[in-house]
């Protein structure tokens, strides 16, 4: 086994887009790099795409065809691109190969089956629901063939154990508090003008328009809120996803029309920004009066920590994993299936009656979740796995 004071680590993520799993990959890589380890990040990318956030680690972009030809073909292309990039980089030279999703997990599973690598680790952030047999198979194989399975919350660690019989380990996310601190106010006025944000209040949701994010229910709640607060605006930021949300988005837009809520990328009651430059996100949080995270299913919910680090109240679903690390001193809980409950929670937060303690409880919470502590936990798991990993490749 290579000495633990310097490991060669490959971290695989599914895209270059600003999604939670990609953020996790980059920030974990940064923390491991700062601890003195040799980290390479692998990500599929179309021609012309670059990683959304700079990294001190070496980044290998596995080029894929630019045209999307259906979900199955797109996933297949990305698995193949990552596998080719790993072969070109001689994957066997890495001490640790760690996939953050099903795409990277399948690339590594194929190399493991071929005897090209000794094994790999896989982090399950959350699992999706697929009707297509190939997508279902790929998702299952990515954790089933892994030597170690990690999860970013106890809720998913329990799910993997109780539903799938997998003994997983919890390794949580972190937050870079300096990124979202008071200095993030710089540029907020320019962003406000570009997006056409008025006097507010402003409700911010990050993640685009997705069924899992419960965006349609948020729209219903916002309509109730706006009846009482006519100048309120809902800002839906982000949304760069590999999954197909077109049908859900069409229904969302149709319902917005029925509610007489105009939508554009600037100035209207509902502002859909699409993916924004990474540098704009801290300022966008600072423009919000309240941040909504009323998801129906989450792996962890990094946006919650980003909102709290920005000293903005956050309304979250009263479900795990949120209930594992939050309480009434750090968030406003709501029923994600009840628009009236959501609107009331948003109203309380806007009025400054959230009950969130930004002096004591919130800083204490943020100190619990650092990328440095996450990296240290990863290193402990890596070390224990390396003790038992095969010393030679399969014949």
UniProtKB/TrEMBL annotation:
It comes from the Bacteria. The keyword Transferase applies. Keywords: Transferase. Pfam families: Glyco_trans_1_4 (PF13692), Glyco_transf_4 (PF13439). Residues 19-179 form the Glycosyltransferase subfamily 4-like N-terminal domain. SUPFAM superfamilies: UDP-Glycosyltransferase/glycogen phosphorylase (SSF53756). The keyword Transferase applies. One of its GO terms (molecular function) is glycosyltransferase activity. NCBIfam families: MSMEG_0565_glyc (TIGR04047). This is Glycosyl transferase, group 1. The lineage of its organism: Bacteria, Pseudomonadati, Pseudomonadota, Betaproteobacteria, Burkholderiales.
């Amino acid at each position: 086994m290579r000495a633990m004071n310097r490991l060669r680590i490959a971290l695989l993520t599914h895209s270059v887009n600003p999604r939670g799993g990609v953020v996790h990959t980059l920030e974990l890589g940064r923390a491991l790099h700062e601890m003195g380890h040799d980290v390479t990040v692998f990500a599929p990318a179309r021609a012309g795409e670059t990683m959304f956030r700079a990294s001190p680690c070496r980044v290998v972009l596995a080029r894929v065809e630019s045209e999307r030809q259906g979900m199955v073909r797109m996933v297949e292309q990305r698995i193949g691109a990552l596998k080719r990039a790993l072969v070109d980089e001689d994957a066997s030279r890495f001490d640790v190969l760690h996939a953050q999703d099903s795409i990277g997990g399948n690339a590594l599973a194929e190399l493991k089956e071929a005897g090209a690598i000794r094994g790999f680790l896989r982090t399950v952030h959350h699992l999706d629901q697929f009707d297509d047999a190939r997508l279902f198979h790929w998702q299952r194989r990515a954790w089933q063939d892994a030597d170690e399975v990690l999860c970013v919350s106890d809720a998913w660690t329990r799910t993997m154990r109780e539903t799938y019989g997998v003994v997983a380990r919890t390794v949580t996310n972190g937050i870079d508090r300096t990124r979202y601190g008071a200095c993030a106010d710089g540029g907020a006025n320019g962003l406000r003008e570009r997006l056409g944000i008025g006097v507010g209040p402003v409700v911010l949701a990050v993640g685009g328009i997705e069924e899992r994010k419960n965006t349609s229910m948020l729209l219903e709640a916002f309509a109730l809120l706006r009846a009482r607060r006519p100048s309120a605006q809902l800002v839906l930021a982000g949304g760069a996803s590999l999954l197909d949300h077109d049908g859900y988005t069409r229904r969302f837009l149709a319902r917005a029309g029925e509610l007489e809520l105009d939508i554009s990328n600037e100035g209207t009651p509902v502002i859909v920004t699409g993916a924004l430059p990474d540098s704009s996100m801290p300022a966008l949080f600072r423009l919000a009066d309240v941040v909504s995270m009323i998801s129906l299913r989450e792996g962890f919910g990094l946006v919650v920590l980003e909102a709290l680090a920005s000293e903005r109240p956050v309304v979250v679903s009263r479900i795990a994993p949120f209930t594992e690390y939050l309480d009434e001193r750090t968030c406003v809980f709501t029923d994600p299936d009840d628009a009236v409950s959501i609107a009331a929670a948003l109203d309380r937060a806007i009025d400054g009656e959230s009950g969130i303690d930004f002096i004591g409880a919130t800083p204490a919470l943020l100190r619990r979740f650092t990328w440095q502590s996450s990296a240290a936990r990863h290193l402990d798991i890596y070390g224990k796995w390396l003790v038992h990993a095969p010393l030679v490749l399969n014949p």
